[in-house]
Amino acid sequence: MIKRFFVEKKPGFNTESVDLAQTFRRILNLKKLENIRIVYRYDIEDLSDDIMEQVVNIIFSEPNVDDVYTDILPLAEGEKVFAIEYLPGQYDQHGDSAAQCIQILAGHRPALKVAKCVVLKGDLDSDAVEKIKQYMINPVDSREADLGPRASLTDAVKDPEPVGRIEGFIHFSDDERNALGAAMGFAMSPADLAFVQDYFRDDEGRDPSVTELRVIDTYWSDHCRHTTFATHIGDIDFERGPVNEAVEKAFSEYDETRDLLYGPDTERPITLMDLAVIGTKDIKARGLIPDLDESEEINACSINITVDHDGRDEDWLLMYKNETHNHPTEIEPFGGAATCLGGAIRDPLSGRSYVYQAMRLTGAGDVTVPVEKTLKGKLPQRKISQEAAAGYSSYGNQIGLATGQVFEVHDPGFLAKRMEVGAIIAAVPKENVRRESPEPGDVILLVGGRTGRDGCGGATGSSKAHTEESIHESGAEVQKGNPVEERKIQRLFRNPELARMITRCNDFGAGGVSVAIGELADSLDIDLDKVPKKYEGLDGTELAISESQERMAVVVSATDADAFVRLGNAENLEITPVAIVTDTGRLRMNWRGDEILNLSRDFLNTNGASQFTDVLVKEPAESPGICGNGRYSGAHPCVDEGPQCGQSEGVGGNV
After folding, report:
1. Pairing of strands 504-507, 2-9
2. Is 408:495 a contact under the CB 8 Å cutoff?
3. Cα dihedral 403, 65, 334, 118 in deg (nearest 10)
4. Over 90: is that where the pLDDT of 290 sits?
5. Which residue has the higher pLDDT, 626 or 300?
6. Given strand 419-429, what is the order of strands in its sheet?
7. Superfamily of domain 301-592
8. Is the pLDDT assigned to residue 499 strictly greater than 60?
9. What spatial distance separates the first Cα and last Cα of the chain, rounded to whole Å?
10. Mean per-residue pLDDT for 537-545?
């Protein structure tokens, strides 16, 4: 039997309702809106009456701050109501946390569904109600829920079809091949797809599976492999002018440094990546950064430091990382900003370090623009900024991470796509970090959260431009955060005994199983049937590429696997062996008895076809003015051209 309960904050505690009412009167200009009530609806089954009473009064509500209604939500005359729920396949932390609490109380996890009921009072016509719905329901992750009783709490699941193969792919013409790339929404370039066709025709002698093409597309995405930064730069010309005179001089110094590092006859291409890192390579070659920590792991930047720990010097690793979630935050602000912080944490965490400090830098358009002037295909700037702040704050508070700097830049340049940057710093005793090359027979353990559709294609999605259609088409690409699960992993990895069992570790950021596990060793056999799922109905491709959050892939020796699982279970973490290290030189995946992926590691490591471009460095149309005190004024002229700038440093256009 399904039982239904409604929980509403009492007056004085209903801050969410009060804030929304003020927002809609001011932002949506709904002056006739008198009141809003926010009521959470819980549908639950398979609990005895005595346990149900405890659940309602301990988990669903707090008697001193909440009113609880059974079966029917009481409405006053003239009140209108609609409900919001997550789309099937989207992770609902509210519902998951409630179910976990009930599991502790009842001994088993019941079926549970949560919806948010919005009760409106006032002289509101259908257009006004629709405005509120459009503001509150983001089609990327949510939908309007049915107000009637539920016949079942189990989502209808269709048994997934076998993974198909692209019949005739190796014989496709250029037009057919490019049409396939467009139809499947690949981030690969036409040259990449042609390179893939050559590989399957000449090396494998067969057509690829859908999973293989999706995994390759993920592996070679800009997000995972920085293909834009690896583009080979050919001819470079500079327009004449005072700014480019300095730029050309700097480039000449770069060229000289390349000769010193790589030799004057080097065939190494000029790339944006090389331009970006040449300075660090130079000072490293000159022995100026002896504290740099180097390893085959690519989790986070790290340096060696000496720490005075209770009067005793100890060797530690200091790690730092920044994460950008511009695309996810643009289309789903709360989840995008939350997982920006979560994603930044996961990299040094996979390095076995403890994250203790964070910083947030964001960029938005004008948040004061009326909602009705929002560009087609976009969310209002105000909504993006407010919900992104709430998402970042929510994640940080739940995982217990202090953020010492928060700064948002408002500029028209961020109207096309938001900037969302999270940066963190972490540390770990060096003796806790064991870095070894995986050996055949080693076991890959999946630690933490389960796999769902949220995050499918996130790496390739982040590699695409934002368009009017993104808000409708990119929902599955937005990951859903679970900070409570990540906090468990933090606690687990602080255990020195466990940390020293790990020979290599990757977080499940971009690319999911295919990249997180696929990068750990050159030869792997992955059993996708063993990957824990949030729900049934996922096919092999989804299991391979989903980036569902708060998971780690760790390599341990077969003799340490049981002990690792036991320590993880003590932290209430699910830990599952899903792969083994082999010596074949190939990445292989099996699902339901079918080998759906079998690729040469040498082929994957090519990172696709090389991209080529020529560059013309243009002289700015207007040279930036310079203050009397030597500061650039950027696009905004200084108020005072005298010895003191008319604006404070960092204000307006002054930098």
Report:
1. unpaired
2. no
3. -160
4. yes
5. 300
6. 301-309, 312-324, 419-429, 354-364, 403-410
7. PurM-like C-terminal domain (3.90.650.10)
8. yes
9. 64
10. 92
Mean pLDDT, range 372-376, rounded to an integer: 86
Half-sphere exposure in the Cβ direction for 152 (13 Å, CA): 4
pLDDT at residue number 645: 41
388 vs 381: CA distance, rounded Å? 10
Residue 470: partners with Cβ closer than 8 Å, 6 or more residues away: 327, 330, 331, 377, 464
Read off the pLDDT band of 42 (50, 70, 90): very high
C-alpha neighbours within 13 Å on the C-beta side of residue 618: 3
Tell if the pTM clears 0.90, that is, is over it.
no
Going by C-alpha positions, the residue among 102, 197, 113, 186 that lies closest to residue 152 is 113
pLDDT classification of 510: cutoffs 50, 70, 90: low
Q: How far apart are CA 452 and CA 478, in angstroms?
A: 11
In contact, 221 and 457? CB cutoff 8 Å? no
Question: What is the DSSP annotation of 71-124?
Answer: SS----TT-EEEEEEEPTTS--HHHHHHHHHHHHHHSSPPPEEEEEEEEEEES-
pLDDT at 165 over 90: yes
Q: What does residue 485 show for φ and ψ, rounded to 5 degrees? A: -65, -40
Structure tokens at 440: 């055949």
DSSP letter assigned to residue 408: E
The pLDDT score that the predictor gives to residue 536 is 85
Asked whether residue 470 carries a pLDDT value surpassing 50, the answer given is no
Q: What are phi and psi of 26, to 5 degrees?
A: -85, -45
Distance, CA of 390 to CA of 341 (rounded, Å): 12
pLDDT of residue 298: 77
- Name the burial class of residue 615, with classes exposed (0-12), middle (13-18) and buried (19+) by CB atoms within 10 angstroms of its CB: middle
Q: Kindly provide the b/e burial profile for residues 320-357, where b requires at least 16 CB atoms within 10 angstroms of the residue's own CB.
A: bbbbbbbbbbbbbbbbbbbbbbbbbbbbbbbbbbbbee
pLDDT bin (cut points 50, 70, 90) of residue 38 is: very high
The residue type of 439 is: E
- Domain regions of the chain by residue span: 2-145, 169-218, 301-592, 624-655
